[in-house]
Design goal:
The complex is a heterodimer of chains A (about 375) and B (about 425). Chain A is an alpha+beta fold. Chain A is about 25% helix and about 35% strand. Chain A has a 6-stranded mixed β-sheet, sandwiched between helices. Chain A has a 5-stranded mixed barrel with strand order 11-12-13-20-14. In chain A, helix 2 packs across helix 3, helix 2 packs parallel to helix 4 and helix 3 packs across helix 4. The two termini of chain A are about 30 Å apart. In chain B, strands 1-2 form a two-stranded antiparallel sheet. Chain B is extended, with a radius of gyration of 31 Å. Chains A and B meet through strand 6, helix 2 and helix 4 of A and helix 16 and helix 17 of B.
Chain lengths: ~375, ~425
């Protein structure tokens, strides 16, 4: 999974105590400390307005931090103009120059660096070959499809071998199928070229697919920085649990905490056992988080008693091809979702009274929402 | 189904697809046509018609054929080398008598006087002294006696040259050319050869004004396109303000400002920069200042619209790719404003070509543009032929420039790459 960056590699980019405000009243980025290692693919993930794009723009040099310093290869770059930073950037709307051909677009960074013509030509050709766009070299951007334009934008950002490549929601304007294809292509480019990428997106599945590490932003604060699997399996708070992947939330009060596990009295009655991840202590409010694929439905209510077993009513069965989604009402949550294997829903019907059950391992007690 | 689409024939009805499409669209087309008909008629009556008639006047030669019809007929087979034969003299005598009775001698003499200076006197003396039709066979002698000019071949070639129905005389005159007695095209005598200079002056001033408008308008348009909406709207009002003021008022305002005891001269003297008032008006400087001011919005608006379409992402992309601000401006921003520069430049240039009132009011004698002469010939001397010819040459030159511009632009058509 971890192709490029390792824990021992030195930090290429270091955000140190970065704050940013536009209006002098609200901090868009609050006290950001973040290290990005050489060769790493780091995604800044978060809803709009969470500060992720502002962070990227500060790194690119289009915004100036209100406080703090950014280091690239141990050099402070806060006062360095963007064109001297040697950072390639891919924009959401491609920003290919419409008056230049594809070839001229890709050659632009080399031309402004006064690279010798023959060498530049060779590098441009290699870059176009890499994205399989050689035959279209003489076209103009307006004559290409969105996916082709984005490939050219990628080639243009990579052709001058920058120390760092930034991508600002580069796939946002593409349709789903093309987006997934491009995700794999970008991932592959990253692995073969060993480049360092900082990628901004609000699409959590995109982040999970491509990243070595993901920094989840909310409200100008990095909530968690971790590998994709850790982020999904071990979210540190309710925001991360809800933002990354599907999640069922149950509200309750902590009764006791013991050896990392706690008893939680649900607001709707009944108690469950959960892993105590982020709870203040006995008597505090908590939000329980259970992933839909970690829940089983028991049709026979009477059969046996488990530790975490709640009565539920089936509201809807949604067939989704590779799996089936059951929407139930359980413990006061009207949209309690359970992912079932295909064919496992045969005897479920609308309005049926069932039980849902999950192991304490898979139920996380987090901060109250 | 695929086959049916390829052949254009639909199986159930057998009617070709193309024809059915046409039929289906006909109602829409009729409706569209009905919407434009009023304007089309209006334009035909008020624009196309007058221009066509003006162009026709530039070559129309009706005066002499109408007043001296028999003479023109008799000269039809004259070789032009010797004096015409007796028949032509007799016809001329008849025509002059008839014209005197009808009171139309002046019409012909005005036209013939353009062709040959002094013809007015020749015709006047002849019509005054020719009492009756000369005896058959004596017409040449009689007329020659009344005015010896009738023994001159040039007099007759002037009549033949003006014999219609069409003439190149006015158009040649508009280009400082004329025909000699042999009908060859030669340069006009220096005292009449003024129009090439006037055309050159007209194009120079227009080009200069367009250039000044570009230099002054570009930064303003850039500000307009990049300021936040609130402030750019305010600025836009200032740009459009001149449109809401009469052209005459604005020109007169410049007279007030620039005259010897005007605001500018007084201010400079008060500051001690100058001792004697500068001559700022009734010369080329005044023309440039006033015309640039009047035409500036026509440059700013097309520039603004082309700049508004340039996403700020382009400049950011250029910077991230390593281009310093000046490089990014020259290689990325400026090329994308070229359509706006072209459109604004052409608009200002063509509008300036036809400017009349501003140079007439703030210019000196040597700053008058072609439209001044067109107005002069139309309203003062009633030489409509020459006025039309000057207009036609101006129109042709303008169309030529516009076509060249169109071809240049077509070569580098810019298509937007942003999908917003």
């Amino acid at each position: 999974m971890e192709s490029g960056g390792t824990a021992s590699a030195p930090a290429l980019v270091r955000f140190s105590g970065i704050q940013k405000t536009y209006d002098g009243e609200h901090l868009v980025v609050k006290n950001l400390d973040l290290d990005i290692r050489k060769g790493e693919f780091v995604t800044l993930l978060g809803p709009s307005g969470s500060g992720k794009t502002t962070t990227l723009m500060m790194l690119a040099g289009f915004e100036v931090p209100t406080h703090g310093e950014i280091y690239v290869a141990d050099r402070p770059i806060k006062d360095m103009p963007p064109h001297k930073r040697d950072i390639g950037m891919v924009f959401q709307n491609y920003a290919l120059f419409p008056h230049l051909t594809i070839e001229e677009n890709v050659a632009f960074p080399l031309a402004v660096r006064k690279v010798k013509k023959a060498e530049a030509q060779e590098r441009v050709r290699a870059a176009l070959r890499m994205i399989k766009m050689e035959p279209l070299a003489q076209r103009r951007p307006g004559q290409l499809s969105g996916g082709q334009q984005q490939r050219v934008a990628l080639a243009r950002a990579l052709v001058f071998n920058p120390q760092l490549v930034l991508m600002d929601e580069p796939l946002g304007a593409l349709d789903k199928r093309l987006r997934e294809q491009m995700q794999l292509e970008i991932k592959q480019l990253h692995e073969t070229m060993g480049i360092t990428v900082v990628y901004v997106t609000h699409d959590q599945s995109e982040a999970l697919t491509m990243s070595d590490r993901i920094a989840v932003f909310n409200d100008g604060i990095v909530q968690q920085i971790d590998k994709p699997d850790a982020l999904y399996e071990r979210p540190v708070n309710s925001f991360v649990a809800n933002f990354v992947g599907e999640n069922n939330v149950l509200a309750g009060i902590v009764e006791t905490i013991e050896q990392g596990y706690c008893r939680v009295a649900l607001a709707s009655g009944g108690t469950v056992t959960a892993r105590a991840v982020n709870v203040a202590g006995a008597g505090a409010a908590t939000s329980l988080s259970v992933r839909p694929e970690r829940i089983a439905i028991v049709t026979n209510r009477a059969a046996g008693e488990g530790p975490n077993r709640l009565p539920a009513t089936v509201h809807d069965i949604i067939y989704l091809g590779d799996h089936t989604l059951a929407v139930l009402e359980a413990a006061g949550n009207e949209e309690f979702m359970v992912k079932l294997q295909p064919g496992a829903h045969g005897d479920l019907s609308h309005g049926q009274q069932v039980s849902v059950t999950f192991s304490p391992e898979d139920c996380l007690a987090l901060d109250p929402m | 189904m695929t086959e049916a689409l390829l052949t254009g024939v639909d199986a159930p009805t057998g009617v070709p697809l193309r024809r059915r499409l046409k039929r289906a669209e006909r109602a829409r087309q009729v409706k569209a046509l009905a919407l434009v008909v009023p304007l089309l008629l209006f334009l035909l009556l008020t624009f196309v018609g007058p221009i066509a008639s003006m162009l026709w006047r530039a070559v129309d030669d009706w005066e002499v054929p109408r007043v001296l019809p028999h003479t023109v007929a008799a000269l039809a087979d004259w070789n032009g080398k010797d004096l015409p034969d007796e028949r032509a003299y007799a016809a001329l005598a008849d025509d002059i008598l008839a014209a005197r009775a009808a009171g139309t001698v002046a019409i012909a003499s005005k036209r013939l006087n353009y062709a040959l200076n002094g013809f007015r006197t020749i015709l006047a003396s002849t019509s005054r002294n020719l009492k009756t039709a000369p005896e058959p066979g004596t017409a040449r002698e009689t007329l020659g006696k009344i005015n010896p000019a009738w023994r001159d071949r040039g007099t007759w070639s002037a009549i033949k040259g003006a014999g219609g129905p069409m003439t190149s005389f006015y158009l040649l005159a508009a280009l400082d050319l004329t025909r000699n007695a042999d009908g060859a095209i030669v340069a006009a005598p220096p005292d009449q050869a003024i129009y090439r200079d006037v055309f050159a002056r007209t194009f120079t001033i227009s080009f200069g004004v367009a250039l000044l408008c570009l230099i002054l308008g570009f930064p303003v348009a850039y500000l307009l396109a990049t300021l936040p909406p609130g402030r750019s709207n305010l600025l836009m009002i200032f740009v459009l303000l001149p449109f809401w003021t009469s052209l005459l008022v604005r020109t007169c305002a410049w007279i007030v400002l620039l005259q010897s005891n005007g605001v500018v001269n007084d201010g400079l003297r008060w500051l001690g920069i100058i001792d004697a008032p500068l001559r700022l008006i009734y010369n080329r400087f005044g023309v440039y200042v006033a015309m640039t001011h009047v035409l500036l919005p026509f440059m700013i608006l097309p520039l603004y619209s082309s700049m508004k379409a340039i996403s700020p992402a382009y400049m950011r992309a250029a910077a991230s790719l390593g281009a310093a601000p000046v490089t990014a401006f020259l290689r990325i921003y400026l090329p994308q404003t070229l359509p706006g520069i072209g459109a604004g430049g052409l608009l200002v240039f063509i509008l300036a070509l036809g400017y009349y009132i501003t140079p007439a009011l703030v210019g000196g004698g040597g700053d008058q543009m072609i439209s001044y002469f067109i107005a002069l010939y139309t309203t003062e001397t009633a030489n409509w032929g020459l006025a039309s010819a000057l207009g036609a040459v101006l129109l042709l030159a303008t169309l030529l420039l516009a076509t060249v511009y169109g071809k240049l632009v077509q070569g580098q058509q810019v298509t937007g790459g942003m999908k917003n």
